[in-house]
Amino acid sequence: MRKPVAIFLFLLVSVVFETGHAAPANYDFRILIDVTGSMQQNDPGNSRVEALKLLNGLIPDGAKAGVWTFGRYVNMTVKWGKVDTAWRQAADLAAEQIYSNGQFTNIERALSRATSGWKKPDKNTRRIILLLTDGQVKISSKPKKNKKSRDTILGKTLVSLKAMGVSVYGIALSDQADTVLLRRLAMETGGAFVFTEKTTELPRIFFRMMMAIGDPDLVTLAANEFPVDASIREMTLLMFRSDATRPGELIPPAGPTLSARQPGKSTWRSGLGYDLVKIVKPAVGTWRIDAPADVDNRLMAVTDLKLELGEVPTHITPLAGLKVVTELRKRDKTIRKNSYLRFVEFKLTHINIDGIETSYPMKPSSERHNKGQYLFRGRGKLQEGVHGFIVSAESRSYTRSKRFEIEVRWPVVVKLEPGFKAGVYQLSLKAREEFLKPESLVAKVEIEAPDGSRTDLPMKLSLDWYHARIETSQAGLYQAHIKLSAVSNTQQNVDIDLGSFPMDGVYRAVPEPVSTLSTN
Which of the two residues, 88 and 381, has the higher pLDDT score? Predict the structure, then answer.
């Protein structure tokens, strides 16, 4: 199975399969929901309720899970235990009791209480923390106590989480949330981080996180149609509805239309704006959805024919390369026969931060011992932001796909801003605390003029920012070449080449020296 891996800073990402085929992991979810008073402003519609209900439906049967709410105190809202029908019913009832009148934001205690019982790592269990908050660490009205608690989380607690094999998935629900803390917890544990101020997006955010965690086999939806082949033993369809009042409908290849009111042999779980449908032994053929198409609609399949990926990163820098490896497996054995694979199209689709999709063919491995594997190598510079990727295998009778996201960020903030005069710029640099120790940052900047000459640019430090003024004197292209060295939060010495940043130069005559005449 695929595991999320945080690839730190400037490293080239190499994606490989693990040796052997491990059995499917068990899951242990600990869900932490902020119920402080600020949620009245940041989540006025209480979207946490619908998000938690959807999450309850997505957690796999047989997994372990529990829900805790926190403010000043931490309460086990849904008792930790095996996920079954009774647990889901209790979780649905508990979701309705989520409130927004807690004081303070005791994230340290929430993490401590929720991880109770986790000691040594368990190689057969995926341990997941989902942490939703809209605030800073606050356990007291005294700033020193709050700082000490925050330092404890990023020190002792984080070390413990990594030692226990826990992955943290953090959601910041306002610009007042401690995004640095949540990012560090996510990055250093191989989880993920999402920031949003649109609380109505919470159900979709929880869903996307569950897709990243569970890594299900997906069947491609095209124009609200999808094929079901004989290898699919069970399918789960999630349909988002823009019109919350209109029920979704599912049309089999033959037989009556299915809905929440007329489910037939299907199981429906419907909430505000979505339907989650589960069908065991679905009929082979083309199925249709009678509802407006939605980019987040997904069909998840339990199947003997699986598309597998190697490990993929959760975070990279814009200059990092990306290598993705995939293969088809039938009953856990890699398919290697050319007579079968020549009818299958493997491709990778990149969805950039603007939502623009570009597809690339994946090529078969040239190495004999990796026969059956298909590869993609990308080395282009990516914009900062969250990029989506879809790896798919398609034939005339079936489709399989995997989706994942990668957050692209520099470990520093770079601002190159024009001044009030043409040809004058202000350069500012600051270490991002989730990557680097700010006090360790050393910047080396060279300014290259249009004539090719280079000069060092001195930088001044003020309140964690390095600043410098750049004044051009030649017409044409100037470039600021920026290299940095620093110590990471994991105590690694790192060297970072940010590349070149362009500027438009303006000619300025060099003032001639003023001569003075003296008379005797």
Answer: 88
Q: How far apart are CA 292 and CA 284, in angstroms?
A: 23
Pairing of strands 125-133, 357-361: unpaired
Q: Does domain 310-407 have CATH number 2.60.40.10?
A: yes
Model-level pTM? Answer: 0.86
Whether 253 contacts 225, CB under 8 Å: no
Q: Are 488 and 439 in contact (CB under 8 A)?
A: no
User: 281-285 contacts: CB < 8 A, separation 24 or more?
Assistant: 281/233, 281/234, 282/228, 282/232, 282/234, 282/235, 282/252, 283/228, 283/252, 283/253, 283/254, 283/255, 284/228, 284/229, 284/230, 284/253, 285/227, 285/228, 285/252, 285/253, 285/254
* CATH topology assigned to domain 19-214: Rossmann fold (3.40.50)
Instruction: Please tell me the CATH code under which domain 217-303 is placed.
Output: 2.60.40
Rounded-to-integer distance, Cα 220 and Cα 241, Å:
18
Displacement of CA 435 from its chain's centroid (Å): 16
Encoded tokens for 456? 């060092």
Over residues 342-396, the pLDDT tens digits come to 999 999 999 999 999 999 999 999 898 899 999 999 877 788 999 999 999 999 8
Q: Which of 3-12, 88-97, 424-433 has the lowest mean pLDDT?
A: 3-12
Helix, strand, or coil here: 321?
A: coil
Q: How far is CA 166 from CA 3, 49, 119, 176, 494, in A?
A: 12, 25, 11, 26, 26
Q: Which residues contact 86 (CB under 8 A, 6 or more apart)?
A: none
Dig out the tokens for 320 from the structure. 């990092």
Distance of alpha carbon 263 from its chain centroid, rounded?
34
Asked if 135 contacts 89 with a C-beta cutoff of 8 angstroms, the reply is no
The architecture of the domain spanning 412-505 is: Sandwich (2.60)
C-alpha 109 chain-centroid distance: 25
d(CA 328, CA 364) in angstroms, rounded, equals 12
pLDDT, one tens digit per residue, over 133-155 is 998 999 999 999 999 999 999 99
| pLDDT at residue 512, rounded to an integer | 62
pLDDT attached to residue 48: 92
pLDDT in tens, 106-137: 999 999 999 999 988 898 999 999 999 998 99
Q: Which amino acid is at 336?
A: R
Q: Give the full edge-to-edge strand order of the sheet including 26-34.
A: 74-82, 64-70, 26-34, 125-133, 166-172, 192-195
Query: Which of 5-9, 79-83, 441-445 is least confident?
Result: 5-9
Do 19-214 and 217-303 agree at the fold level?
no
Domain ranges of the chain: 19-214, 217-303, 310-407, 412-505
pLDDT of the residue at 426: 96
